[in-house]
Structure formats: C-alpha cells, structure tokens
What does this fold into?
Amino acid sequence: MKCYIVCHGYGPTHSTVGWLAEKDGPYIYMRNENWGKWAPKEDLRYQTGGNTWQAAGPLTDETVERLQGFWIGTGSEEPLSDSHVIGAPGTQPWIDTVVDKTFVDAMSAFDDRLFSFIQHEKVWDKGRDCPPWDGAFYIATLLPLRPSFDLQRSDLVPKTDAAERYKGSYSSSSARRAVKLSATLETPIWRDGYTRQVMCTEEARAALEAIGIKEWWFMPRDLIDDRH
It folds into this structure.
C-alpha cells in the first residue's frame, strides 16, 4: 500500500506566491528595515496554532481582512494562462498556494473538508505585467494537520535548534519514510504534523491529476498498518 507526498516541480510554469504592497513594488518577505508594518509571511495567523509549527485550520478573520490590502506577485518562465495553480503546498506555516475555479470546484466535489478557499482579487504576473490567468484567484489553505510517520521506521529526528515558533518540527537524517495507515483514514489529503509535508491517498492523487496540474508531482511512501 502507498500514499504520496505532494511535491513542487520545476518546469517552465514553476511559480511561487510572493507578497507586494503595490503590484509594481518590491516583494515583502519579513519585517525589516525596508518594511516595518504587518507582513503577510510573518504576521498571518491560523485559527489553530497561530503562525507556529502547529498552525492548522483556516486563516483568522483578521488575517483574511489584512491580506486583502496586499498584492500577490508571481512569475514563471512560460505564461500561467493554462495553469490551475500558483505555487504548491510547502512546509512553512504561510500561504503557498493560489488556485483557480477549476481547482476549487474539483476539490470541493471530491471532499469539501480539505481546503478553505478565499477569493483574492489582487494577483499579478510581475514579468508580464498582467494577471496570470483569466478568471478568479483563490488562496487555498489545507485544513487537516496530523502526525503521519511511524517514527520507528522513519529516519526523522526532532530539531533541537528550532526557533520557538517551530518547536515540534522534525528533520530528516535519510530518505527512509513509513506512513501509518491510520493517518490516511480520516481525510484523503492532509499535512503531516512532524514535517508539515502535504500528503495524499491514491484516490486524492487521482483527483488532483484529473485537474491537470502539471506543476506538481507525487512521491510514493510506504504505508504501515498500525491498526492492531
């Protein structure tokens, strides 16, 4: 039996989610000498866990309201006009994925417990000076978070030097991984609590591939039956 880690590819439509105060302005990464105000990556909060390693669930109402004042900037080697996603699920507790209406409709029909979708009007392809695609843009927030790996069969160790907000994070000492079968039974897409990697079942992989997301790929992982 297998499940999969959802991975970001690096093809010609590889893109990332960045934040701008103005669509033609510089990217805002964190609060520093160039930006001393509310910063999307550093100050956003989730309803569970705030902006820590345990962040889960939807964004807070205050965060959603503040984000409306910012532009999302992106870019890629080839136009994103035929793409359905900007970015991909990452491991940090910040916004990393923007999707189109096709993605929203497909994933909502597959399982409406998986994502929170928030429409965002201000999205800009900085290299081409235009929106990345025609139609609406949605910030996609994956909701479920739960520990998934069998630590006895996986080469993962707790980080001892993690910043306070990232306490509970694990690092890899090799590629060996084994996922508990029980982790796949509640929802078909989730974020692992040890690594914050996004994982999915075979059925969820098929649903994502049916959308035609050429920017993502799926790394198989063994499942360990831990139900006995």
About this structure: Residues 75 and 126 are 6 Å apart (CA to CA).
